[in-house]
Amino acid sequence: MLAAEIIYLEQTLRAHVRRFFTHEASTAFEAIPLRWCLLAEAAHPQERALFIPTDVASSPAPEDVWNVPFGPTRLTLWNRLPPPSSEWQLQNHLAPLWYVHPNGAVMPAWNLANMLFDLLTLKEETSRPERDAHDRFMGKMSPRAKPGLLEAPVFNDSVAALVAACVGVRRSGVPDAFLLPGLVGPPVLVLSHDLDQLRGNDVWTQAVRLSRAVFPRGRAFPHVRNAWLALVNTFLARRYYFDNIVGMIAIERMLGFTSSLYFLNGTGGRYGARSGSGLIPDVATVTPTGWDLGLHYNYDTHLQPQAFGAQRTELESLLGQRVVAGRAHYLRFDPARSWRFYVDLGIQADESLGYYDRIGYRAGIAGPFRPYDAESGQALPLIEMPMVFMETALVEQYPDDPAAAFERHLHHIAVVGGAVSLLFHPGQFHNPEYPDTLGLYRRLLGCARRFGAQSINAIDFFS
Amino acid sequence: MLIEFLKDDDIEECNDFHNRAYGSKRTLEQWHWQFNHLLMGKRPFIVAKEGGRVVGTQALMPITMLDAAGDILTAKSEETLVDSSMRGKGVFQKMYDPLTAYALEQGVKVIWGFTPANKAFEAIGFQVPGRTSQLVHPLSVRAAAAFGDSVGTGMRGATMSAAIGVASFVSAALVALALDRSGGIRLEVLEQPPAEAGPLCREFVRGWGGTTILRDSAYLKWRYYDNPAVRATLLGAYRGDTLVGWMAYSLDESSIGYIVDTIVLRTEHAPQILHALMLQAVLILRAAGAVAIRSWRLNAHPFDQLISKVARRLGFYLLRRGEPVVLYMAPDLDPAASLAVWNDWFVTRAYTQGVVG
């Protein structure tokens, strides 16, 4: 790793600790020196410090996956490191987490530095050519998909292990294998809504319904009920779209959350803003203080500065305020160019980094981070809050009990620290057209409330 | 068997005991929210222990009520629970006796509660003056859940579901046809407990008579804004800059909506104000995905009657299902006082545990 890359990674780790751990944990973490070094340099350590090798190339596909108990959860790790010399011994052979040296030095048993840096810089995407028809890298294309590691927040697991190690080394000279109570802050839930449609009666959506009513479209028989849905949406165009925004805000308010609303305006069409821009000021009127209004980057603005700028300018004039946060429609995102593009176009917080086909941690992290800019060798002035859960992916992946899957993740994050984000579209929130998601949003937020989750909007991480 | 006031070390075990008995997931934060109210410096919470293990609990929550004569200290009966292995051994009475004695010593005038175990309460001197009933607004065929097991299964279930479907259609039509009667009234979500809540509540009692919980800003803050389970939304009604009423509503995890509480000053416009508040609450809960909305209907208190009248015009149906009310009057309570007359009580879901708002 280059020196700039190491500095970036350390800054990202420290920012994460400050954000999600208590002052006591943060102090312990700062008290133990981190020594980024070559594996060979760690062979005969001269001081009690945390040695992290940076010269062991990370395998593109995860190898040697294992997990270790960590309090009430388990950490999932991969890409094992060999000990630098015979002086180092695994602290626990049954649950390998740390190599310990007789002089009190400690070294992770996994390739922490390269693995986390590669994940944060999306190396698995930039090094592979596969893309779908919308030029997207899908979850199933990731080398972590097959071994089931997309749902493993390895960055958070690594940081939690590091903090526990520092606390233990500081207190008793050996790493702790769990975090004592009171060291981790509450889990954070970042909510957002892509306002793709504000009405259900646009020509594209109605055409799709009617075609489903007439043609089988992959089913054994046509789904005649769609004709009824088309009729309902003709007369109650706002009921399952605009009104659902009011409903979602009502639920968030009852459970102590706020959210970001990302408006799709600009070009119309099948992949564009189907509802036009007329209702956008009305949505702003019903949105309380504390909720954030942002941009849902239109399909045709992907890496197109003029189109992006025009959409943003139009939205700002409709809302009468600056817009500095958003997410790409269809999650169109170029791992090599999009972040720099957003910065150049004035975006401060982005939530595009997620899979439309899977829930999971696309950059291996549950929480916000500043993307690395290889050109300048520094973090970009942008907060990326990766999208972890999208309602459609959640119910498709866990049709029997999507709320239980959500709860499982939240339970883990409550132990290791971090933030998960949830995208829920208004049209999916309370709409007879999508029975799988009826009542789901209320159940998910209820679950988060029981975990004492804190609500933070993506833009509020930018400071 | 040991009967004693709860010690802090037993709190977690008591909460686990409750969660095991009800199959619930009440957190310790919720427990503290509910029971950290001392009565003259002491938490009125009794535990029964056998072999060092908690086998029974009984608590009181001090609640200030008021009538035209002023504030009255009352207590709500909560956490009545006896382990099945200890039933029939008088544990309930053994827990309640010291609790009642302590409460009366501290000036509590009435102990009240809602419980299906009314026989046990009657046996230790409580009265059962009535039962709770439900006003239900069905919004969907899925509202069957709101009606509980009364829907039944098989043919009966199918018939009931069809009836609920028709009822929800009628209710939807009544809401669609409801006129906006909020002339001159501004509705606004109260983001913080209003400072004028206490005076408004006193004015309410002067206008409508009877007795009710004193909903001052401290009470509202605790009951709604700091509620760790669900924070019911308070919708305020203003005439000019004057708060003239509010309605609290919430939604549970089964998508059942609740009208938790409402207060409107007695003026000639009270029916219109109540109508505007209730219509708005129905529209918001419907947008939030509620399959049905429930509200309590209790007795002949004039404001309870008005709620019932307005609710029915908006598509609510009366469902006579609920739990018995139990009351224990202090021996020195004036029999003519409002507290002693059940129909003088104005009761809403604000009197519940607050688990669903």
Q: What level of helicity do the residues of chain A show? A: 25-40%
> How do the helices and strands follow one another from N- to C-terminus of chain B?
EHHEEEHEHEEHEHEHEEEHEHEE
Topology-level CATH name of the largest domain in chain A? TIM Barrel
CATH top level class name of the largest domain in chain A: Alpha Beta
Kindly report the average pLDDT value of chain B. Answer: 93
Estimated share of beta-strand residues of chain B: 25-35%
CA-CA gap between termini of chain A: 28 Å
Top-tier CATH class of the largest domain in chain B: Alpha Beta
General description of the model:
The complex is a heterodimer of chains A (463) and B (357). Chain A is α/β, with parallel strands linked by helices. Chain A folds into two domains: 3-172, no CATH class; 188-200 and 237-461, TIM Barrel (Alpha-Beta Barrel), CATH 3.20.20.370. Chain A has helices at 3-20, 23-31, 112-120, 123-126, 154-172, 203-214, 225-235, 242-254, 280-286, 305-319, 338-344, 391-397, 402-416, 426-429, 440-450, and strands spanning 34-37, 50-53, 66-70, 73-77, 89-90, 98-100, 106-108, 188-195, 260-263, 292-297, 325-328, 349-350, 372-373, 378-379, 383-384, 389-390, 419-423, 454-455. The longest helix of chain A is centred in the middle third of the chain and has 19 residues, at 154-172. Chain A is elongated. In chain B, the strands form two sheets. In chain B, strands 1, 2, 3, 4, 5, 6, 9 and 15 form an eight-stranded mixed sheet that branches. A seven-stranded mixed sheet of chain B has the order 8-10-11-12-13-7-14. With 357 residues, chain B is of the alpha+beta class. Chain B is built from nine helices and 15 strands. Chain B folds into two domains: 2-108, Aminopeptidase (3-Layer(aba) Sandwich), CATH 3.40.630; 133-323, Gcn5-related N-acetyltransferase (GNAT) (Aminopeptidase, 3-Layer(aba) Sandwich).
